[in-house]
Amino acid sequence: MVKLSVNINKIATLRNARGGNMPDVVKSALKIEHLGADGITVHPRPDGRHIRYDDVRQLKAVLTKEFNIEGYPSEDFMRLVEEVKPTQITLVPDKPDALTSNNGWDTVKNESMLRDIVARLKSVGRVSLFVNADANMIEGAKRCEADRVELYTESYAKHYTEDKHKAIEPFIVAAKAAEECDLGVNAGHDLNYYNLNFFNKKIPNLLEVSIGHALICDALEFGMRATIQIYKRCLHRSQKYQNKHCLLTQEELNEIYSELNDSLEG
Q: Which residues are catalytic?
């Protein structure tokens, strides 16, 4: 099954809004692992507005599942991941003041730079390049000797409600190009429980999705335990889970809440 990596930046944003350590980012990450997520993603930015470098070090010391660190390959970032040695390093072309990731790498224009960076990181962990759904960029990622690409899915999410079949087309082409290049396929950005299952079913070689903002927002409504189960259901391809949006039934939600109450009372 496709792995779900939960991006916890928004939890750190909430903590930073008031100072102190509430919510506790490390405890939250451990709980998310315990509730069924396959990994944790963080994206430390230079201004420290959410995840900070010290958070990354503390998380590495306690996490038991896959740890994915995203970021622009500045020298500070490179030294951090070389020290921490996460499972995966996802390189993004964000400028320091970017609100969020909003474009993939031009792996053709930046081939020389990226090739050197990837070579430096090969002994650290798996290296993935954040790219648009463009076969040329994927072929460029192969020339840079990356292990995987992460498809930037903002355009898919934006156009999903208009015409999901048209929205997915470039991603099917991109995923096939990655397969031909022997590159693993990850995906992320604006994926949520409305559009995730369809994306998953149409991209058969998908290995991992990284989801943060939508999942944390849904957890405010459903609770974290139920939310992770909803997203995990979206990553099943069996006929059983092809119901609308892959939401849990009320009975299933009640069962999860009952289990949670039992564990708290115990």
A: 43, 70, 189
Most distant pair of Cα atoms in the chain: their distance: 58
Tell me the two tokens of residue 27: 């405890």
- Selection from 189, 236, 183 nearest residue 205 by Cα: 183
Hey, CA dihedral for 193, 194, 196, 202, is it positive or negative? positive
Identify the residue whose tokens are 């604006």: 190
CB within 8 Å of 45: residues ≥ 6 apart? 51, 71, 94, 96, 98
Q: Is the CATH code 3.20.20.70 the one for domain 3-265?
A: yes
pLDDT for res 239: 62
Annotated domain spans of the chain: 3-265
Closest CA to 45 of 80, 6, 85, 84: 80
DSSP letter, residue 51? S
pTM of the predicted model, to two decimals? 0.92
CA torsion sign, 183 to 84 to 217 to 244? positive
Q: Copy the structure tokens of residue 165.
A: 């079949």
For residue 255, give the DSSP letter.
H
Each residue's pLDDT tens digit, 138-168: 999 999 999 999 999 999 999 999 999 999 9
* Number of Cβ within a 10 Å radius of residue 42: 27
Question: Which DSSP category does 245 fall into?
Answer: G
